[in-house]
Amino acid sequence: MGAAPPNPAFYHVVSEVSTVMPEGFLPLVSVVIPTLQEGKYLRRCLESLAKQSYPCYEIICVDGDSTDDTRAIARSFGVNLVLAPGSTLVTARQIGVEHARGAIIIGADADTFYPSDYISRVVAYFGRDPRIVAVGGIGVFELEPWWCHRIWILTYLVYTTIYRLTGIVVYVAASNFAFTKAAFEHVGGYTTYLEVGGDELDILDKLKKAGTIVYDPQLIVYPSSRRARMGFFNYYWRYGIFGYGVGYLLSQKFKRIVIKYTPVR
User: Is residue 11 scored above 60 in pLDDT?
Assistant: First the structure.
């Protein structure tokens, strides 16, 4: 389950923020994790979140009716477990934000590992400039399959270069995206019929209208490569060109889910 460490040579924008909080700035942070049959991965995620250096946070798991040990694992870590049978991924994230008590929301994934200073780094940005409404970073995937690991490194290199040259944030993964609850509510929250892209491209576009988005390629999380294990062509067809790209555009046009997202467990 281990992920490869990041190679600094790939990233041209060095983080401009330390984990030192402005004096007295310790807002409550809500980490929202949608779950469905995540028994193989959730413990690793929650163990990493339990070791955070930041002191003021809650974890909310929104479960879509898991029948494995997902709920038992969540309860063993004392998280706020919200039951949402039949919910889609984006709907589960929306429900999680609605239950959140924090002023800052961190979107997370059950199959992702978070470094111990992750929340502190996120919060430090919001404390630096009140115009910042969202912060995102990158994901370094597991070494196997090799093509997934390398392609995502190159993809994030492209996103980083665009940001460095233009200041434009092209894409942020839902597993590494934080925003203020106030800004989220101001823009109307997630578009829940966008089952793919609703928690990434669409909410990113909405939040750009509310304030400043920061993209930090040194804000790194470590997702699993489980979707890539089905093979290169299946992965890019189901979760790239067709499942994500075409599915997102069709849902935008018809205002409903057109291509149902199939999770990999």
Answer: no
Nearest to residue 216, comparing CAs of 177, 184, 182, 179?
177
pLDDT computed for residue 239 by the predictor: 81
Q: What is the bridge-based pairing of β-strands 132-139 and 104-107?
A: unpaired
Question: Which residues, listed in sequence order, are joined to residue 185 by a DSSP beta bridge?
Answer: none
Residue 174, CA distances (Å) to 53, 79, 110, 153, 265 in order: 22, 20, 11, 17, 18
DSSP letter (8 states) at residue 105: E
Q: What is the CA radius of gyration of the chain?
A: 17
Residue 7: pLDDT band by 50, 70, 90 thresholds?
very low
- In this prediction, residue 2 carries a pLDDT of 42
CA–CA dist 56, 103 (Å, integer): 11
Nearest to 3 by CA among 215, 226, 154: 226
Number of residues assigned to the chain: 265
| AA identity, residue 131 | R
Q: Is the pLDDT of residue 229 over 50?
A: yes
- CA separation for the pair 241, 246 (Å, rounded): 6
**Domain annotation for the chain: domains and CATH numbers:** 23-225 (3.90.550.10)
Distance, in Å, from the CA atom of 21 to the CA atom of 25, rounded to the nearest integer, reads: 6
pTM value?
0.91
